[in-house]
Amino acid sequence: MADIKKGLAGVVVDYTAISKVNPETNSLLYRGYPVQELAATQPFEAVAYLMWNGELPTDQQLADLRATERAHRALTPEVKQAIDLLPTSAHPMDEVRTAVSAIGATETAGITNVLDAVGTPEENLERSVRLFAALPAIVAYGQRRRRGEEAVEPRDDLDYAANFLWMTFGEEADPVVVDAFNRSMILYAEHSFNASTFTARVVTSTLSDLYSAVVGAIGALKGPLHGGANEAVLHVFDEIGTADNVAPWLDEALAEKRKIMGFGHRVYKRGDSRVPTMKTALDTLVEHYDRPEVAALYDNLESEFVSRKGIYPNLDYPSGPAYNLMGFDTLTFTPLFVASRITGWTAHIIEQQGDNALIRPLSEYNGPDERHIEGYVPDAANL
Ligand code: SDX
């Protein structure tokens, strides 16, 4: 009987130098740096640089990255047209997936030999920075379009986080909100071989292009067992309503064997290393917006579920209510995850290209034994 590893649980398939997820110590390192230190001290642009280059940037390197990022922030007419083709009721993850696909089709147009589309490491780093720069405008336009509002042009006097909020809401965000948003972007950026990152590596392993790998990753991230959970957390909060309804709601949900969104993790089994940092950011927002009822519901559901099932929150649990307090529509949450994770995905794509092997596991056949069609007589050509 074959030793099947369903969902590749516990299977180590390759090395990576980008991040280390350690459930024993409940820790996460990006290129050796604890994520808590990065979230507390760095602008997201610096962490993006670290992801791609393996080191934190010097002042000049950060200034250069910022200049390039700011030069590519604006929504291009082609991308706006691609998004405008979709109904405003389309899921925002489908909008983002379509926009990235349109960018890829445009940027690789004219390449007739598929072997040339894969690009050099230098080309792919440039492509990565351009996607990193373009995604905030795509996500911001998606939310504004759904609200019947016009796109807001980027401002090159604001850093990445502040500009993202500016383009989404059309006003300068309070520094408290900018800081919480910047921290969330850093926490969401990278997490070793999660399903969407591994999808990107599988696509890359066939020597397909970076954009195709990112589109695949976006498709994987949309799922509620993965990135889609942060959106689903808000649906849970909306269902429960108030803190005093947690216990009866949980009775019913667990009786129906529902997965409670925002809890559990394939790798972390005693809590997600990123949660305390994001929870602190959420607490700051609860105080800033004077919304104690959000904290009460959050705390009640966490304590009730952990005490009953011994399953702990993952990053999506504090992120959902935090993004809600910042003013993002619930449907915008997972696109925010895309805007952050594009840095980890593209770092993995470049790493995979650097030491590639086609990713093609085996399967154990358990279908019908060989059999033949009644009366079929193979002709000489088929013998
Ligand atoms: C992310 O991989 C990554 O690193 C992902 C991520 C990243 O940064 O890229 O960290 C981001 O995707 C976080 C996870 C977001 N997803 C959710 O919050 C959805 C709810 N979570 C579950 O679906 C679940 O916890 C998974 C999918 C995340 C992990 O599940 P596993 O490892 O496949 O384990 P499992 O589903 O087999 O669960 C083991 C047991 C089961 O009970 P039994 O069937 O054995 O009785 O625990 C139960 C599960 O039913 N369980 C849950 C639960 N999570 C696990 N029961 C209810 N609610 C949950 N949330």
Keywords:
383 residues; mainly alpha; three-stranded antiparallel beta sheet; 17 helices; 3 strands; binds s-citryldethia Coenzyme A
How does this structure look, described?
Keywords: Transferase, Tricarboxylic acid cycle. Pathway: Carbohydrate metabolism; tricarboxylic acid cycle. Belongs to the citrate synthase family. With 383 residues, the chain is mainly alpha-helical. The protein contains 17 helices and 3 strands. Strands 1-2-3 form a 3-stranded antiparallel beta sheet. Helix 2 runs parallel beside helix 17, helix 9 runs antiparallel to helix 16 and helix 9 packs across helix 17. The longest helix has 26 residues. It is globular, with a radius of gyration of 22 Å.
List the helices and strands and how they pair.
Elements: E1 19-22, E2 27-30, E3 33-34, H1 35-41, H2 44-53, H3 59-71, H4 77-84, H5 92-107, H6 114-117, H7 121-146, H8 160-169, H9 175-188, H10 195-205, H11 210-221, H12 229-240, H13 246-255, H14 275-288, H15 292-309, H16 316-326, H17 333-354
Antiparallel strand pairs: 1-2, 2-3
Helix pairs in contact: 1-9, 2-17, 3-7, 4-5, 5-7, 5-11, 7-8, 7-17, 8-9, 9-14, 9-16, 9-17, 10-11, 10-17, 11-17, 12-16, 14-16
The structure holds s-citryldethia Coenzyme A (SDX).
The site of s-citryldethia Coenzyme A (SDX) has 20 residues, from loops.
